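Structure (tokenized):
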């Protein structure tokens, strides 16, 4: 059997930047804080902006529609949030999951948070909640054998689907 190749050139910028920052100990700041004041747009992945929170596409998704819901304030822990931030964070999480249902009609959703580096947080200093559509059988041989995920749509396409669903929420309840 010959050697197969799967190109993921979009990851190169991230790998080069992350490697350089780790080697030098320098950081260009928090990527989430940099996004927190931007108007929603396909070019930046910001899906929704609220007073104390915002939603953005995961730039390195596990699957189509993988979204993040975050406080705009730079905090690492749920216990650092004010009551108002907690309420708005979970209201926006509700809106995003409802939009994911409307945009993707998944069989299920993963919703969660990795709190701290030991728990798997890639950016542990800025709290973020994940919302990810899932389908029966979406873990295929590429994930199981090659430890590679195949994302079948661009981030721009995902942004368009989700923002349309956020703007015009479905009145249908999910099939689950």
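Design, position by position:
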């Amino acid at each position: 059997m010959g050697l197969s190749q799967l190109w993921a050139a979009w990851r190169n910028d991230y790998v080069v930047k992350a490697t350089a920052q780790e080697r030098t100990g320098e950081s260009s700041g928090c990527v989430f804080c940099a996004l927190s004041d931007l108007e929603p747009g396909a070019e930046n992945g910001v899906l929704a902006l609220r007073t104390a929170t915002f939603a953005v596409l995961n730039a390195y998704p596990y699957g189509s529609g993988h979204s993040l819901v975050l406080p705009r304030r730079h905090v690492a822990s749920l216990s650092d949030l004010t009551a108002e931030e907690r309420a708005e964070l979970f209201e926006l999480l509700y809106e995003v999951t409802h939009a994911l249902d409307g945009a993707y009609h998944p069989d299920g959703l993963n919703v969660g948070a990795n709190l701290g580096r030991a728990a798997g947080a890639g950016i542990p200093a800025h709290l973020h909640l994940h919302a990810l559509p899932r389908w029966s059988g979406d873990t295929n041989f590429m994930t199981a054998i090659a430890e590679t995920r195949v994302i079948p749509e661009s981030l721009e396409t995902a942004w368009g689907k989700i923002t349309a669903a956020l703007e015009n929420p479905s009145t249908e309840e999910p099939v689950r």
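Reviewer-requested clarification: The beta strands are 46-49, 53-57, 67-71, 108-112, 129-134. The longest strand covers residues 129-134.
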